[in-house]
Design a protein that fits this description.
single chain, 574 residues, alpha+beta, 10 helices, 18% helix, globular, disordered C terminus
């Protein structure tokens, strides 16, 4: 069962041969036979894309698992990922511990899971559990395992694979059944006999995976120091604490937060509230995405969410949180409260002070009675301390907890939302730091391969993959932002690169100017072309004829073109 191809054959499902695929088979999902965690998987919708998808999947599988065998299976649009947890002993007893829904995924990796799977058609849950028990029993399997299915929109189940281990999402099953799967797995391995049947399930559990990544930038992995990681009110499984560093050498998963309640609605509400109140300071994370996901109507309505959820709604889930301008106000006031007051020559500053964070500029004035905000007349500053600012908005006093750790980022936490702000320098550095067209590494990682034939001097098309970076157990491609000539290439397979390292330089093509149209002479008897009337100046003295005035020459003011490094387009190679 560790091989996906052999597992399918054991279950009577024939995998598709990539070499024999036709247009009638599309769309298909190319997968690594020894894969897991979303690695070595590519969706193919056009036969012309198949060779590149196979090459990329094999390369990633070889790098991750030491086995480049790949196969294909039908790609079910709008399907739900449903799995069954099994636990079997060496005496013939096999437990099926209900179902789990793991449909919310990005890059073929799970983000939100829950048990039991909500909204399944009548009888389907029992049928999936029966199939899972037969699969484990027919093998004489011992230990914990997960049998995974893809349920089509019409309710038809498709066997995917059996993972011969515990899954990341196993805590939701533990919560519903009130058991410790890790302890039971160890007891089974020691030869203990399981009871005839598992305990009765109770309630509903939902798990959210907190990743160090930026969903607004294609889920780009993030690294750096963890300053605070506090999630209260729910079960939290994590290997990180304040002071640890997130590096590129491990998965981007920081923690799992699990809520259990009598009903699904209560569990979802409890998990969303815990994540909203959490203090997560350090690398950018998907925390805001999780909170908004748990409140989206396609998730709150049981059975509506499928594996294409984030493909459809990601843009509406990744905008800045509401109220960010007030968080910027709080950050500016906390910074001012931590600075010394005016000197001996003046009791109070005569002009308002200014502090900018991202797109927000805050002007504040320190008075004898506290602080005033000239640009926010509806906001009253109740109190301002370096770590806590209280603002009154529409008659409601709101607390803003402000923290910074010397790395330039300011974290503002409120009961409703959390904000991650970057101060804007008062004076921009006019000196360009990189040459025009520079492609900088969007993350630290390892260059795993270059595009075939890529070399200095070659022409590249906009959107063409140039190289692939591996970071946090995922592979990402860097593409050309514009058509042009590759004038420099500093990346090589196997090279470790830091964030912001120069990878390559693409000189964009110069636009071809349109030829100027010469003015047509006016023929005798022909009217002057419209828009160019003859201009005259008034006569200097009465009776003196007016003199034609030459048409003024319009000159565009010279504005030097700004030079900025070109940020590469980062995409997950799916």
């Amino acid at each position: 069962m560790a091989s996906k191809t052999r597992a399918k054959k054991l279950m009577g499902v024939a995998p598709l041969d990539p070499a024999a695929l036709t247009a009638a088979d599309l769309p298909v999902l190319v997968k690594a036979a020894a894969g897991g965690g979303g690695r070595g998987m590519r969706v193919v919708r056009d036969l012309a894309e198949l060779p590149a998808a196979l090459e990329a999947a094999r390369a990633e599988a070889r790098s991750a698992f030491g086995d480049d065998e790949v196969f294909a299976e039908p790609y079910v649009e709008g399907g739900r990922h449903v799995e069954v947890q099994v636990l079997a002993d060496a005496h013939g007893t096999v437990w099926a511990l209900g179902t789990r829904d793991c449909s919310l995924q990005r890059r073929h990796q799970k983000v939100v899971e829950e048990a039991p799977a909500p909204g399944l058609p009548p009888g389907l849950a029992a049928a999936l559990q029966d199939t899972a028990v037969r699969a484990a029993g027919s093998l004489g399997y011992t230990g914990a395992g997960t049998v995974e299915f893809l349920v089509a929109p019409d309710g038809t189940p498709h066997f995917l694979e059996m993972n011969t281990r515990l899954q990341v999402e196993h805590p939701v099953t533990e919560a519903v059944y009130g058991i410790d799967l890790v302890a039971l797995q160890l007891r089974v391995a020691e030869g203990a006999r399981l009871p005839a049947g598992p305990p009765a399930p109770s309630g509903h559990a939902v798990e959210a995976r907190l990743y160090a990544e930026d969903p607004a930038r294609g889920f780009a992995p993030q690294t750096g120091a963890v300053h605070a990681l506090d999630v209260d009110g729910v079960r939290v499984d994590t290997g990180y604490e304040a002071g640890d560093a997130v590096t590129v050498h491990y998965d981007a998963l920081l923690a799992k937060a699990v809520a259990h309640a009598p009903t699904r609605e209560e569990a979802v509400r409890a998990l969303a509230a815990a994540l909203r109140r959490a203090r997560v300071h350090g690398p950018a994370t998907n925390r805001d995405l999780l909170v908004r996901t748990l409140g989206h109507e396609d998730f709150t309505r049981p059975g509506r969410a499928d594996t294409g959820f984030y493909d459809r709604v990601l843009p509406e889930l990744t905008g800045p949180p509401p109220g960010e301008e007030y968080a910027a106000v709080a950050a500016a006031l906390a910074d001012a409260a931590g600075r010394p007051g005016p000197g001996a020559w003046r009791n109070l500053p005569s002009q308002p002070q200014t502090k900018a964070y991202g797109g927000h500029e805050v002007r504040y004035h320190r008075t004898r009675g506290g602080y005033t905000l000239p640009d926010h007349p509806g906001v009253r500053v109740v109190s301002a301390q370096p770590g806590l600012v209280r603002l009154e908005l529409s008659g409601v006093v709101r607390p803003y907890r402000v923290a910074s750790y010397g790395d330039g980022t300011v974290y503002v936490d409120t009961p409703q939302a959390a904000y991650r702000l970057t101060p804007r320098p008062r004076f921009a550095d006019p000196a360009p730091r990189t040459a025009p067209g520079s492609l900088l590494a969007p993350m630290p990682g390892t260059v795993v391969r270059l595009a075939e034939g890529l070399a200095e001097g070659c022409r590249v098309e906009a959107g063409r993959p140039l190289l692939w970076l591996e970071a946090m157990k995922m592979e990402h491609r860097v593409t050309a932002p514009a058509s042009g000539t590759l004038t420099a290439l500093h990346a090589a397979p196997g090279r470790q690169v830091e964030h912001g390292a120069l990878l390559a330089v693409v000189r964009p093509e110069e636009p071809v100017p349109e030829p100027a149209q010469p003015d047509q002479p006016v023929q005798p008897g022909q009217a002057e072309p419209p828009g160019r009337p003859e201009q005259t100046e008034p006569p200097g003295r009465p009776g003196q004829p007016a003199r034609p005035v030459p048409e003024p020459v319009q000159r565009e003011p010279h504005v030097p073109e700004p030079v900025h490094p070109v940020q590469p387009v980062l995409e997950e190679d799916a």
